[in-house]
């Protein structure tokens, strides 16, 4: 390309930019395919997609919305971690500080909380979409199964996060859940040890808080992120989003 | 009519299995659209995805600016709020918990539903109606699933709007205010 | 080595299979061992929880014919109810999901806010999903005159300490 000395030229027509993006701006089919295949994050999607895939009325974007909420939750969650200390003496006060003493803390907390509610709802809607369009059928059975696991993970993520503010809502919701787990039969063996391992003792207290915290900030998000990766990979390997049979 | 002599613009080399057929003015390698009804992911898919992200983020931001997430009093193990409700997505479970031995509503029912859902595609195997919303060929499957959805949502609605102090049933407009 | 040799040499194949089996066995069993260790690790051996045996003041702190909620220890002190004169201690942890039932003097019963279980003055379930009655705790009087409660030891509803 000849130098034209425009600002765009200065930005994009230099060695550095070209070492990162090894193709021209994607305005023809060659560079459009290169744009997809040469990028780690984009290449989980194919170079070309069926027109049904991009029809908003088909997927309603529900799966993508779930994914975006997951991303937003990850980012806001990491930021909240800079102020939140998982101790039963500190946790509640840290939430109050986030609300009143930290710049934009309240916005981050709200984004994280409402995003979490939204994710539960949209993952559920997404599941309904997949069912009502028959998207779970062969060859997508396995991906449907991964989806169910993702739904359960989403619920567990919300639940473990719910305990962290250590307020009345949190404490009693977790007490109920812990005792619920304790009723798995046979109660005196399985139920009792499950409850013990979840609560980290007999009473819902510091041990329970740190356990829920570790699950919430690292174990469950990591598993969910990996499974979301597999979910997307499988969409592609299963031949893209389902569509009506072609005449 | 005179038969015009055929003008050969790109003479074919008989020793080769391929040859130049035609030059057309376009930015694509494809002469016609392929029979597969596809479009390039960039920009058709990616731009839609980016627009959706902006939309999701803006809506969530507006909600977060307008409404504050709840924070009640500090946890107090000796004082149970009345009623003590879990977050809405678990209220269906909590509602079932209040009916019988907690194992049935709290563990057995959800486990069975999960297993049924995971196994559904291995039993429901007809390929008719795939890719169509509410396909008439899938009436029965859709009906069964709808029953499940209505149950799940219905229980949540009961738990959220119809349960008051002591987990008693109230009409939403008669709900005693929590104390 | 000709094809015949490989096929014919029974020992060779057995050895290969043996090592294959042994290799997989080694990998899987070390995984299983680590998994067991990880699960066992998650069960704490030492708990820093309040003792299950504790004192709750003198009998004279609790007037006759009352039910008193003791917040810190999550129990009710029952004195002179149900035709039993002495002091008895009943758990305030709902046997359903662990909420704290409220004593309702007018109805002479406990009502749980979480899922509506109701317990009568004997601790028995008379409504709601609670699977078991509220337990009565074993109680003694220490030499200093204070009530000692052992919340790990359950007793019959008529177990009392005379006042
Ligand atoms: C963390 C949660 C989840 C995320 C982020 C996610 C993401 C996605 C995305 C982005 C798609 C592409 C199509 C679309 O946007 O609708 C998709 C498709 C799909 N999802 Fe999910 N999903 C999640 C949970 C689930 C659940 C709960 C199920 C079902 C139980 C499920 C089953 C499927 C199936 C079968 C497809 C392929 C559908 C088709 O080809 O029509 N996913 N998912
Ligand atoms: S916890 Fe008391 S009724 Fe459920």
Strand order of the largest sheet of chain C: 1-10-9-4-3-2
- Overall number of strands of chain C: 10
Largest sheet of chain C: 6 strands, antiparallel
| Mass-distribution shape of chain C | elongated
Alpha carbon gap, first and last residue of chain C? 97 Å
Helix fraction of chain B by DSSP (H/I, runs of at least 4): 40-55%
Provide the gyration radius of chain C in Å.
Answer: 30 Å
Low-confidence stretches of chain C: none
Describe the structure in your own words:
The complex is a heterotrimer of chains A (247), B (179) and C (163). Chain A has one domain (60-237): Cytochrome Bc1 Complex, Chain C, CATH 1.20.810.10. Helix content of chain A is 67%, strand content 1%. Chain A has 11 helices and 1 strand. Chain A has 247 residues and is mainly α. Chain B has 179 residues and is mainly alpha-helical. Chain B has 4 helices and 1 strand. Chain B has helices spanning 41-66, 91-97, 102-123, 139-162; one strand spanning 38-40. In chain B, helix 2 crosses helix 3 (102-123) and helix 2 packs across helix 4 (139-162). The termini of chain B are far apart. The model of chain B has no long low-confidence stretch (mean pLDDT 84). Chain C has 163 residues and is of the alpha+beta class. The mean pLDDT of chain C is 85. Chain C has 2 helices and 10 strands; from the N terminus they run H-H-E-E-E-E-E-E-E-E-E-E. Chain C has a 6-stranded antiparallel beta sheet, with no helix packed on it. Chain C has a 4-stranded antiparallel beta sheet with strand order 5-6-7-8, with no helix packed on it. Chain C folds into 2 domains: 3-41; 53-155, Rieske [2Fe-2S] iron-sulphur domain (Rieske Iron-sulfur Protein, 3-layer Sandwich), CATH 2.102.10. Chains in contact: A-B, A-C, B-C. The site of protoporphyrin IX containing FE has 29 residues of chain A, from helix 5, helix 7, helix 8 and helix 11.
Provide a quick synopsis of the model:
The complex is a heterotrimer of chains A (247), B (179) and C (163). Chain A contains 11 helices and 1 strand.
Keywords:
heterotrimer, A: 247 residues, mainly alpha, Cytochrome Bc1 Complex, Chain C, 67% helix, globular, B: 179 residues, 4 helices, 2% strand, binds protoporphyrin IX containing FE, binds FE2/S2 (inorganic) cluster
């Amino acid at each position: 390309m000849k130098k034209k000395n425009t600002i765009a030229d200065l930005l994009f027509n230099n060695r550095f930019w070209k070492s990162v993006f090894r193709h021209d701006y994607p305005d023809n089919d060659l560079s459009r395919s290169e744009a997809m295949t040469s990028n780690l994050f984009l290449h989980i999607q194919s170079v070309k997609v069926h027109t049904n895939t991009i029809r908003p009325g088909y997927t309603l974007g529900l799966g993508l919305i779930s994914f975006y909420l997951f991303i937003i939750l990850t980012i806001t969650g990491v930021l909240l971690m800079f102020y939140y200390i998982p101790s039963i003496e500190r946790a509640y006060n840290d939430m109050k500080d986030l609300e009143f003493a930290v710049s934009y803390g309240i916005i981050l907390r709200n984004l994280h909380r409402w995003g979490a509610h939204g994710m539960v709802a949209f993952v559920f809607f997404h599941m309904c979409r997949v069912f009502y369009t028959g998207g779970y059928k062969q060859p997508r059975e396995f991906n449907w199964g991964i989806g169910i696991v993702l739904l359960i993970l989403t619920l567990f993520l919300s639940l473990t996060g719910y305990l962290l503010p250590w307020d009345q809502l949190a404490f009693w919701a977790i007490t109920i859940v812990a005792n619920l787990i304790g009723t798995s039969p046979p109660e005196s063996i399985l139920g009792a040890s499950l409850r013990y391992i979840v609560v980290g003792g007999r009473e819902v207290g510091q041990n329970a808080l740190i356990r829920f915290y570790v699950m919430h900030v690292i174990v469950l998000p990591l598993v969910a992120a990996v499974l979301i990766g597999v979910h997307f990979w499988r969409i592609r390997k299963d031949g893209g989003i389902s569509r009506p049979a072609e005449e | 009519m005179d038969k015009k002599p055929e003008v050969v613009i790109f003479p074919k080399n008989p020793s080769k299995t391929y040859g130049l057929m035609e030059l057309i003015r376009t930015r694509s390698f494809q002469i016609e659209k392929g029979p597969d009804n596809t479009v390039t992911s960039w920009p058709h898919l990616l731009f839609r995805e980016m627009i959706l992200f902006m939309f999701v983020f803006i809506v969530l931001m507006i909600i977060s600016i307008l409404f504050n997430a709840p924070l009640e009093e500090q946890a107090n193990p000796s004082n149970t709020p009345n009623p003590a409700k879990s977050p809405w997505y678990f209220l269906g479970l909590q509602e079932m918990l209040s009916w019988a031995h907690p194992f049935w509503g709290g563990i057995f029912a959800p486990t069975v539903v999960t297993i049924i859902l995971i196994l559904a595609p291995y039993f429901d195997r007809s390929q008719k109606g795939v890719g169509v919303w509410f396909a008439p060929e899938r009436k029965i499957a859709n009906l069964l699933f709808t029953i499940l959805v209505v149950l799940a949502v219905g229980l949540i609605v009961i738990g959220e709007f119809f349960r008051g102090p002591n987990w008693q049933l109230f009409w939403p407009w008669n709900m005693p205010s929590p104390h | 080595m000709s094809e015949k040799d490989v096929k014919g040499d029974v020992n060779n194949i057995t050895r290969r299979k043996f090592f294959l089996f042994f290799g997989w066995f080694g990998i899987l069993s070390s995984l299983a061992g680590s998994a067991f260790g990880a699960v066992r690790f998650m069960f704490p051996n030492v708990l820093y929880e309040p003792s299950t045996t504790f004192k709750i003041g003198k009998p004279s702190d609790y007037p006759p014919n009352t039910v008193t909620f003791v917040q810190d220890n999550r129990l009710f002190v029952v004195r002179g109810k149900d035709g039993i004169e002495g002091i008895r201690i009943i758990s305030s942890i709902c046997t359903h999901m662990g909420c704290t039932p409220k004593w309702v003097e007018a109805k002479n019963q406990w009502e749980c806010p979480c899922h509506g279980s109701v317990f009568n003055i004997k601790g028995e379930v008379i409504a709601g999903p609670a699977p078991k009655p509220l337990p009565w705790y074993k109680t003694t009087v220490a030499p200093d005159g204070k009530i000692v409660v052992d919340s790990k030891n359950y007793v019959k509803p008529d177990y009392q300490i005379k006042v």
